[in-house]
Amino acid sequence: MKAGIFYHGHYGSTRQYAQWLANDTGYPIYDVRNNDIDPSDFELLILGSSVRSNKLTIKKWINKNWPKIRDKKIIFYSVSGTAPGHPDLQKYLKESLPPEMIDRMDYIPLRGRLNVKEVSWGIRLLLWFGSLVERDPEAKQRMRIGFDFVDEQNIKPLIRLIASYAVSS
Ligand SMILES: Cc1cc2nc3c(=O)[nH]c(=O)nc-3n(C[C@H](O)[C@H](O)[C@H](O)COP(=O)(O)O)c2cc1C
Predict the structure, then answer these.
(1) Would the CB of 78 count as within 6 Å of ligand 1?
(2) Whose CA is nearest to atom 4 of ligand 1?
(3) HEC profile of the chain
(4) Where do the structural domains in the chain lie, given as residue ranges?
(5) Backbone angles phi and psi of 127, in degrees to 5
(6) Ligand 1 site-directed mutation target among 17, 29, 47, 80, most atoms within 8 Å of CB
(7) Residue 117: exposed, middle, or buried by beta-carbon count in 10 A (0-12, 13-18, 19+)?
(8) Atom of ligand 1 nearest to the CA of 113
(9) CB of 79 closer than 6 angstroms to any ligand 1 atom
(10) Tens of pLDDT along the chain (169 residues)?
(11) CATH node for 3-112+149-168
């Protein structure tokens, strides 16, 4: 089965997960920001996206390519500060992806990393203002001091899912 890993992120954690997945599966990896590779050529797409201000950053690419990928097998992972199981994750999906895609994709949320010292002053300010209006105390704290949940072990459920597709194809 021809498969590829397509991702979009800014600070490296979405790329890091994509890289670990590529190492494990041998599938090629594409940063959608500097690649115009045609996704029509693939049967299985593993799509990875960071979350920024409640939106999936790969949103534009998916919406542009939706006619080409709507009939593909899609495994989707998001990378954010939000813990798996938190209702905000559903909000990010609903605000960013075609409802038809949400219905039939397999989705695994992963947790990423934020080093507040690494981001620009504009982004720091944005995070600070965001933290003032954030009601969830844990999220408020994350936006102020950062976090690091990136761990290779987190890709295990994705690897199991990919293996199940490879067997059933
Ligand atoms: C400007 C900004 C906005 C963010 N907004 C959210 C958010 O709405 N929800 C969330 O869970 N995480 C949010 N995060 C955390 C990122 O999703 C997290 O740092 C992720 O690991 C970034 O992926 P990347 O390293 O591939 O860019 C935000 C981070 C930044 C810098």
Answers:
(1) no
(2) 52
(3) CCEEEEEECCCCHHHHHHHHHHHHHCCCEEEHHHCCCCHHHCCEEEEEEEEECCEECCHHHHHHHHHHHCCCEEEEEEEECCCCCCCHHHHHHHHHCCHHHHHHCEEEEEECEECCCCCCHHHHHHHHHHHHHCCCHHHHHHHHHCEECCCHHHHHHHHHHHHHHHHHC
(4) 3-112+149-168, 116-147
(5) -65, -40
(6) 80
(7) exposed
(8) 21
(9) yes
(10) 899 999 999 999 999 999 999 999 999 999 999 878 899 999 999 999 999 999 999 999 999 999 999 999 999 999 999 999 999 999 999 999 999 999 989 999 999 999 999 999 999 999 999 999 999 999 999 999 999 999 999 999 999 999 998 765 5
(11) 3.40.50.360
Cα 141 to Cα 166: distance, rounded to the nearest angstrom: 41
Neighbours of 49 (CB within 10 A): 26
Amino acid letter, residue 122: G
Amino acid symbol at 162: I
Q: Model pTM greater than 0.85?
A: yes
Closest CA to 136 of 93, 79, 57, 81: 81
Which residues make beta-bridge pairs with 109? 78
